[in-house]
Please model this.
Amino acid sequence: MSGPVAVAPGVVLWRERLDRAAQAALLSEVFARATDAPFYRPVMPGSGAAFSVEETNFGELGWLSDKSGYRYVPVHPQTGRPWPTIPPALLDLWDATTGYRTPPQCCLVNLYRPGARMGLHQDREEATDAPVLSVSLGDQALFRIGGTTRRGPTRSVKLASGDVLVFGGPARLAFHGIDRIVAGSSTLVPGGGRINLTLRRVTKPE
Model:
């Protein structure tokens, strides 16, 4: 594990913050929870075009995209059941890296199989100034982040399994996305691919 590196104003990266054993333990918790909240493929608002990534959520709220828009919901859209709890290791990581005063309410889980990507977007459905914490498991990914306008300059960072990224402050509403996955660069995820865990605080602390 290396110390934190400032990638851009408000963007901090910890390389290999989780060692291989911690990655495997966290992945096991993710898949155990996914038996109760199975991965599904969201669709774009309006068009209904399917995402190339599969998703699920943990926590009291889950992020959802469907034809009617983006929002947070308390139950899985297919099962109608509440989302599973956030793994304790992620809550500890939130406390250790963000310095935020209250815990996250959502852990969005994105499963990238080879060929999947995520276009530039902002995380702006949250009514809070809390940072966003991102954990990478599995194949390397080319992460792109820019400023608060879609056409502004961007920079790319290769994220590997065990890396932890936090963005907040001036980067809280930065456009960001995943250009591509480096297929076969890790053997961690069964069947290949990458899992990204994104922790968010959704509502303002009381």
Remarks:
- The mean pLDDT is 95.
- The longest helix spans residues 20-34.
- The domain at 4-41+86-200 is CATH 2.60.120.590 (Jelly Rolls).
